[in-house]
Specification:
By secondary structure, the protein is mainly α. The protein is built from ten helices and no strands. 82% of the residues lie in helices and 0% in strands. This is YndJ family protein.
């Protein structure tokens, strides 16, 4: 499981976050996206080193970048308060999702430093801290970002307004509830898993029904279709695991979850979604006068 988790996290650090930053704000976050690999590389390297001082220092370099990214969230919030535009106020669902995406990597970076130092932050086992790192790269950053993008595009589609708002609110909300569940109990985490699963399934439905048909080429359509289909399966696994943890029913092991839920979300959902949205962004730029 360790090797697989490290590979998934490396993908999140080196590609997912900088690609996502370009989708959030191609101009304002352009420099951050360009220099991100310089800070992500030490973070990726530290994953493969034994726990200790060297790994901790490298992890701290990456954590500093995630905290700097999180610091952009309040600045973005203040900017929207000062110069609000239609549909993009500070409490607009798509904006809430984007703010969540900016903050989520800092949770992963903090957990990484603690895990590499061998420190049980808040009393959590090191294995839980290690799994927090991919969770907040993908369920935190990528899922919230994609939910926000989907909401922006489908907010005015007939019959999709309520669903798109639900997706944009429930993905950040579910992620936060899952995080709080770590501190409370398995039942609280199950509530978070239910909310997050509902939000992700809404993202999948909107992607399949509203966004995929508008793709101008088969590759983009296939990427969108794959991301939507994978979400249905991987989030069902997440729900099964959370239910099993809360009720002691038979459920997948963490190793099996990493190989199915984790890998599926990283490659089938996150990677396919970002590639598809990048292509959709280029298409819109090409048709804009």
């Amino acid at each position: 499981m360790t090797v697989l988790v490290h590979l998934i996290v490396t993908l999140g650090m080196l590609y997912v976050i900088p690609a996502g930053l370009r989708l959030i704000d191609p101009v304002g976050l352009r420099t951050a996206a360009r220099v991100w690999p310089l800070f992500a590389a030490p973070g990726a390297v530290c994953l493969w080193l034994p726990r200790g001082a060297t790994a901790t220092v490298l992890a701290a370099l990456y954590a500093a970048a995630t905290l700097a990214l999180a610091a952009r969230a309040p600045a973005r919030l203040l900017r929207t308060l000062r110069t609000p535009t239609a549909g993009s106020g500070p409490l607009a669902p798509a904006e809430i999702a984007v703010l969540t995406a900016l903050i989520a990597p800092s949770v992963a970076g903090t957990a990484l430093v603690a895990e590499r130092a061998g420190y049980r932050l808040f009393g959590f086992d090191l294995d839980i801290l290690a799994l927090t790192v991919p969770h907040f790269h993908f369920a935190g950053f990528t899922a919230a970002l994609v939910a926000g993008l989907v909401c922006r595009v489908t907010a005015t589609a007939p019959g999709s307004t309520a669903l798109s708002r639900w997706a944009a609110y429930s993905v950040p909300g579910g992620t936060l509830l899952v995080l709080l569940g770590y501190f409370v109990d398995d039942w609280a985490e199950l509530v978070g898993a239910v909310v997050l699963t509902g939000g992700m399934w809404a993202v999948a439905l909107l992607t399949w029904r509203e966004i995929r048909p508008g793709a101008r080429d088969r590759t983009t359509g296939a990427l969108l279709a794959t991301s939507a289909a994978v979400l249905v399966a991987t989030m069902l696994l997440a729900l099964w695991w959370a239910l099993g943890e809360a009720t002691d029913l038979v459920h997948p092991t963490l190793t099996w979850m990493a190989a199915t839920h984790g890998l599926g979300n990283a490659l089938g959902f996150a990677l396919c979604s970002l590639l598809a949205w990048r292509r959709l962004t280029v298409e819109r730029m090409e048709i804009t006068p």
